[in-house]
Amino acid sequence: MHQLTLAEITRGLADKKFSSEELTKTLLARITQLDPQLNSFISLTEELALQQAKAADARRANGESGALLGAPIAHKDLFCTQGIRTSCGSKMLDNFKAPYDATVVAKLAAAGAVTLGKTNMDEFAMGSANESSYYGAVKNPWNLEHVPGGSSGGSAAAVAARLLPAATGTDTGGSIRQPAALTNLTGLKPTYGRVSRWGMIAYASSLDQGGPLARTAEDCAILLQGMAGFDPNDSTSIDEPVPDYSAGLNGSLQGLRIGVPKEYFGAGLDPRIAELIQDSVKALQKLGAVIKEISLPNMQHAIPAYYVIAPAEASSNLSRFDGVRFGYRCEDPKNLIDLYKRSRGEGFGPEVQRRIMVGAYALSAGYYDAYYLKAQKIRRLIKNDFMAAFNEVDIILGPTTPNPAWKLGAKNSDPVAAYLEDVYTITANLAGLPGLSMPAGFVDGLPVGVQLLAPYFQEGRLLNVAHQYQLNTDWHTRTPTGF
Ligand code: GLN
């Protein structure tokens, strides 16, 4: 049963082949048995899951249907879940039980999804390896000595290991697409504003966006359908109708114009990945797509701009964790300043502290113009590059990551080496565009992803292209041995 995709589960439940309760019990047992190897969950919510599964079965017995009704999922542990620990992978929030549900959590619960638990993540979503979690590193099911990618590494590892069919993630600079690529999954970062950020603990508010991680584009369509939509509680949520993503999967790719940026194939890209990306181009050409070389001339400035803007926003967002209102508080503070200093010094891990310091520095008087303002200008140039490119093509294609999953600990002493892994993903966040990563082959037994980017609100186009590609390739069906 654990091999079933979300779409197959929906059909199985509708055909009464099994109940949601049966499926939920099977998956919970599988998680208990196998997750100690991976560390992909921070909390299991067995009681809630069984209660939701029974309720979903009752709704189906009453004639209700729906793709998510009775479908087991998990949430990255930065989506607030009422009465349940929402840790953000941090000691700071280890004791925090959210007083309300995030909009995404509430919407999926209303659609009948069953929450199996909360998944491990880089602390405050800062990272590309899932090694900065207070709860320990997550392992890649394709090779337990390698990282699964981050920051939604728990969601990715759990889905890749068939512990459950799909999970939520968030993507500030690649945290859905990069772990999807490194674990052989399909992951989608929607257009900024497509999915509500209400109740999603903020890292960098102008970049953060929630989205689905699953094995197939078909499953991402189902999960995104349950997550997307206007939310008056989020002032950056956009009031645009949500199309029927599943209905749009079968469009023909005849004449689809795919742009391949020449800057994507420079030094730094593993040549074996470059070859696999060319194979995926050929596969799409066979389906009728037309390939065009394009240019994104400001791409080289993306990493420096992102690593000013994201920490700047983080330094402001994380100022709320002061040891007073919620979260970790140090023992026996001598006075208020001591309380602030020690609560934050003891509650935040080293990567989070580094980002807060970089961000506060970039925003400080005298440096604001040199760093933050300049980064914002680069951000606009990057957006303009995309706008020009999308005048000529319908989709942009390239690698998701320059390298396959690296060994645990390999980049620990050099944060910049890890930042460089985000080179292909962060531009979509800076511009607010939707992006998807899908399986494209293997290098040394480790998965490789191909990334597709589309104009604003064209998530449906991304899913359509990915689904057609997956009907004609079988990379996404490969299972890691041992799982
Ligand atoms: N790796 C990037 C960072 O550390 C992106 C993380 C994310 O998307 N949450 O900031």
Question: Describe it for me?
Answer:
This protein has 483 residues and is α/β, with parallel strands linked by helices. The protein is 38% helix and 13% strand. The chain contains 15 helices and 11 strands. The chain has helices spanning 6-14, 20-38, 46-61, 103-110, 153-160, 177-183, 217-227, 271-286, 302-317, 336-347, 350-363, 369-389, 415-420, 426-431, 459-471; strands at residues 41-44, 72-76, 114-119, 166-170, 186-189, 210-214, 257-261, 290-294, 395-399, 435-443, 446-453. An 11-stranded mixed β-sheet has the order 1-3-2-4-6-5-10-11-9-7-8, with helices on both faces. It is globular, with a radius of gyration of 21 Å. Bound molecules: glutamine. Residues 125-128, 151, 171-175, 203, 310, 422 line the site of glutamine.
